[in-house]
Amino acid sequence: MSKEERIPETGLRAGDREGLEIALAEAQAGLLEGGVPIGAALLDSDGRVMGRGHNRRVQDQDPSAHAETDAFRKAGRQPHYRGTTMVTTLSPCWYCSGLVRQFGISRLVVGETRTFHGGHDWLAEHGVEVVVVDDERCVRLMTEFVEQYPELWFEDIGEERP
Ligand SMILES: [Zn+2]
């Protein structure tokens, strides 16, 4: 199957599933480091990994080190982002949605949107191709994390704990 060929009815392309596995592995690595378990990978137009990373808020004491920004930085400087795909385990926050739009990243593959509803709808409205996988493993990872570390979660999404 060519990389451009779609997997019927899912909107996924070849490489997206592998990208999600990488993002999930990054999220799990972040959890083991005591961090917020969100992972991401930036794929080129052929589905190859340009950069991968995870939320590093706790590890680096850096509230701007989100999974998507970490993967984006690891990909290094690029002339453009046309045709690239940001794969993330969780719906992107406004900051990361802004990054996708700012740099013209063409596609967004989201592991899940149930535990957090970020800017994926907004990105779709602005021409980004958005695919929500609704992966149970991503849901479980975030659900358990939010239950166990509510303070860290609300700090990460910039909200006060109710
Ligand atoms: Zn973010």
TrEMBL record:
Pfam families: dCMP_cyt_deam_1 (PF00383). It comes from the Bacteria. Residues 14-130 form the CMP/dCMP-type deaminase domain. InterPro entries: CMP_dCMP_dom, Cytidine_deaminase-like. PANTHER family: CYTOSINE DEAMINASE, CYTOSINE DEAMINASE FAMILY MEMBER. This is Nucleoside deaminase.
